[in-house]
Amino acid sequence: MAVLRHRNSENHPMRQRLNRHHPLTNSILDFTRQPAFLFLLPTFVLLGAFVAIPLIYGFILSFYQWSGFGPMTFVGLANFHRALTDTTFWHSMLRTLWYVMGTTIGCNILGLCFALALFSRLRGWRFFRTLLFLSNVAPITAMGILWALILSPSNGLLNSIIQSLGLRHFEGLWLANPHLAMPLVIFVGIWQEVGIPMLLYSAGLNRISEELFEAAKLDGAKGFRRLWSITLPLLTPVMAVTTILLVVWSIQVFASIWVMTGGGPGYATYVVGLYLYHSGFGYSQFGYANAMSIVVAIIAGVGMLGLLTVVKRINTIW
User: Fold this and answer.
1) Which of 173, 178, 210, 218 has its C-alpha lying 20 to 30 A from 293's C-alpha?
2) Omega into 265 within 30° of 0, i.e. cis?
3) Burial, 216: exposed, middle or buried (Cβ in 10 Å; 0-12, 13-18, 19+)?
4) How crowded is the C-beta side of 167, counted as CA atoms within 13 Å?
5) How far apart are CA 104 and CA 225, in angstroms?
6) How far is CA 30 from CA 2, 9, 17, 57, 162, in A?
């Protein structure tokens, strides 16, 4: 025991060499001795079991051809080459990009507008804040089915209301229309996700000092001038975080489109999540599906780096 205590002491030569040459390792070792580590250990175990291990296994599987049963065949980079030359994959990526851009821009604009309205403390603002956040609490699948019933071209609620108002020439196919399906899916995505940006922008507005607005009023700055010169520059970090979260959530879209359109009509709403699902579970091409998911992750990572660069430039200019 004395030998072990001597080795673990700060004066031991090995310990001093570790402290001098490996500060990161030393910090990790010190953290594992803290009581908080024991409380975080179950979280680390769950993350390792349900996140890290599947990610590693999926990366390994991308180099194999496997149908889900039987032996796996090593194919090297063939799955990645197929993904890079697959026109269906890139078309689905373009539709996903359209969805990501639509929901991200729409949620940012509406979330900021709702946050500004709530920040003015209008009568009943707590009720409206709760009402706007309900869409984030409701299950995505249930809300997708609800909107599919509302926008149904045959007996949907929207067409029924139009008929009752005597405006039959305004009836539409809605989700069955190839030109309207994606905009409507984006609208539903904005409706489902706008609550989180609203709360983030509300928190950012509450952190801005009232003295800045009072000084701007004394200088004669009007409402839009205060918004452009004070509010928006100070909300830039919140915008960056909100945009990153929205991009991460939007690029994974699957359930709402699956229950609303199934990717149709035709391929109008056939996003990359549906293609990954069909490739893996529909055609039993699990290696190819994992290779495509890695390509999507790389594209998303590059996009995030570009977004952060743009945000830094905006911070220096604004």
Assistant:
1) 178
2) yes
3) middle
4) 9
5) 25
6) 21, 13, 15, 31, 67
CA distances from 311 to 115, 157, 236, 238, 249 (A): 21, 42, 8, 11, 19
**C-alpha span between 22 and 8 (Å, rounded):** 16
User: Mean pLDDT lowest for which of 53-57, 147-151, 205-209, 218-222?
Assistant: 218-222
The pLDDT > 90 percentage for the chain reads 50
Query: How many Cα atoms occupy the beta-carbon half-sphere of 195 within 13 Å?
Result: 14
Helix axes 236-251, 195-206, angle to 10 degrees: 170
Residue-level pLDDT at 119: 84
pLDDT tens for residues 270-281?
999 999 999 999
* H runs (alpha helix) in 227-271: 232-234, 236-251, 255-260
Two structure tokens written together for 60: 């390994």
Question: What is d(CA 140, CA 103) in angstroms, rounded to the nearest whole number?
Answer: 15
Helix (H, G, I), strand (E, B) or coil at 64: strand
